[in-house]
Specification:
Elements (H helix, E strand, L loop, with lengths): L1 E7 L4 H5 L12 H13 L7 E4 L3 H11 L7 E2 L16 H7 L1 H9 L12 H18 L4 E6 L1 H12 L14 E7 L2 E9 L9 H4 L1 H6 L6 E4 L19 E7 L2 E9 L2 E7 L8 H15 L4 E7 L3 H9 L3 E5 L3 E7 L11
Parallel strand pairs: 1-4, 2-3, 2-4
Antiparallel strand pairs: 1-5, 5-6, 7-8, 8-9, 9-10, 11-13, 12-13
Helix pairs in contact: 2-3, 4-5, 6-7
């Protein structure tokens, strides 16, 4: 019998920017970094013979937090990569819901029926996952190991293997932990998706309760600025059309915009009635991801020093002050792309 802990990675950019990050190699968020010590403390009294991980940065970095105190190094294993989302990878959830509503329904509710040409099928991604688990369980017979992986591939794999046991299972939080016992090639689910090591202040799911309580996910999609947008933009926050401007759409309604140029975030704005439901996270994320794609390694912005709400918003997303006076504060955040620990297949 081998004990296998299955751990979802810490909070990463796709989780708060609401962008499909399958094989996209995203960074952890500042909150994800805060989740790591809590996860390491949870495993402090658990002896591990080996630690394996998806080679993507968000999983490997989470694995290191548990492995390093035990004198171990995570072993990258591509069988535990997130599902290959094909042409969906890197697209905002709002765009997917708008363009592929039926496929998004299947993605969320019936993964067995979901497939996008160019992406993995349910049989493919669950097959490689279980092949990896059973291979490692046999290799470490009588021991205990941990496998660090991703939300969709693990949820689908559990659904395939354990069926009815997963019917009432909650969502898996970032750094959520499950335990398997594998005996003679047969896995048994002992418990799943436990996040008791996370306080509400750092739990991703607890902080996203705003959309779960309403029964609606507020996912943005984007388009370029047009002349017709002048009717709804607030003159006090009107974007400079010379910059790259992405207009945020909630369904078919324009609700905000973000502008950026040359590594500088030049503006971010939401209609007042759409504030305080974390849509600003998604707007900022669009600027971060597009700036990174253009080869930039940091993003700079500035806000009036008296605007405490804006300073807190940017601080929560990893921006630190680099210049400050009584009138104005300049903030900067690293956005350099993370390294992959091994070449992906």
């Amino acid at each position: 019998m081998t004990q296998v802990y299955i751990v979802r990675h810490a909070e990463a950019e796709g989780n708060i920017y609401r962008v499909m990050h399958g094989r996209y190699n995203s960074l952890l968020t500042p909150n994800g970094r805060r989740q790591l010590p809590a996860l390491a403390a949870r495993f402090a009294g658990i002896p591990l013979d080996a630690v394996y991980s998806s080679p993507l940065y968000r999983a490997m970095e989470t694995a290191r937090a548990v492995a390093a105190p035990k004198g171990l190094s995570p072993i990258p294993d591509s069988r535990f990569l997130e599902t290959d989302m094909g042409p969906w990878d890197g697209l905002p959830f709002g765009a997917l819901e708008h363009r592929w509503p039926e496929q998004m329904r299947r993605f969320n509710q019936s993964p067995e029926q979901w497939h996008i040409p160019g992406g993995e099928t349910f049989a493919q991604y669950t097959g490689r996952f279980w092949a990896g688990i059973l291979d490692l369980a046999a290799r470490h017979e009588g021991g205990t190991i941990a496998v660090f992986t991703h939300g969709y591939v693990s949820a689908g794999s559990f659904r395939r293997q354990f069926g009815a046991q997963m019917h009432n299972a909650a969502r898996c939080d970032n750094t959520g932990v499950s335990l398997l016992r594998c005996t003679d090639g047969t896995p048994e689910l002992i418990w799943c998706y436990d996040n008791s090591h996370l306080s509400p202040e750092i739990s991703t799911l607890a902080r996203q309760r705003w959309w779960r309580q309403t029964g609606k996910k507020f996912n943005l999609r984007y388009r370029d600025l047009t002349d017709s947008d002048a009717a709804w933009t607030d003159p006090a926050f009107c974007p400079d059309p010379a910059h790259r401007v992405r207009v945020a759409l909630l369904g078919d309604e324009a609700v905000g915009w973000v502008s950026f140029a040359g590594g500088t975030l030049t503006g971010i704005w939401l209609r007042p009635e759409h504030r305080h439901i974390r849509l600003g996270d998604q707007l900022l994320g669009q600027a971060v991801l597009e700036s990174r794609e253009n080869g930039l390694r940091q993003l700079t912005t500035g806000v009036p020093t008296a605007n405490v709400e804006a300073l807190c918003f940017f601080s929560r997303h990893g921006f630190a002050p680099v210049q400050m006076d009584d009138a104005y504060t300049v903030l900067e955040a690293p956005i350099a792309p993370p390294a992959i620990d091994t070449e992906l297949p």
